[in-house]
Amino acid sequence: MDHARGRSPPLETLDLETSEFQPGARKLYEKHGFSVVGSHVMRTGPLFSMKVFRFHRRVAD
């Protein structure tokens, strides 16, 4: 967050993505004020797909 605020011009928002297979990352993002704003299914092969979550947070918060 400090890095985003220190840019010129400062970033106003941050968006991150993580998959259903990374529950630790999801908890970390939520702990730091990010909210889930959507999800989609990513196909990674002919027989495999995974759900990907998009997180969003305003930098100034």
TrEMBL record:
Enumerate the InterPro entries for this protein.
Acyl_CoA_acyltransferase
Specify the domain of life of the species encoding this protein.
Eukaryota
Q: Which Gene3D superfamilies match?
A: 3.40.630.30
Q: Under which name does UniProt file this protein?
A: Acetyltransferase
